[in-house]
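Human: Here is a favour to ask of a fellow structure person. Comparing notes only helps if you start from a blank page. I am asking you to supply a protein in sequence and structure-token form. Write it directly below this note and I will take it from there.

Assistant:
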Amino acid sequence: MNQCKLNIGDVVLSKKGRDANNYFMVVSLQGDFVFVADGKKHVLAKPKKKNVKHLSYANAHLDGISDKLQKGLKVFDSEVKSALRQFNEPSQNN
């Protein structure tokens, strides 16, 4: 099966596992697996390994963080957490 090609910095939704229905950012690729982080439980220093089949592309890409990762610059977990906040938290109309 040919699936959507994921790239570093893509926002994905977990469809399976304990973290189902949570959004993550792809931090590295390894064959049929990707490593994802959310800046909270799964930090950049210890990303979660997920099977590509268990993820859904969220039609979003975090350009700034992706550029920094690919250039080898320091990225903070707070940056990832902040960028994913709009996906993980339900919108509030206050």
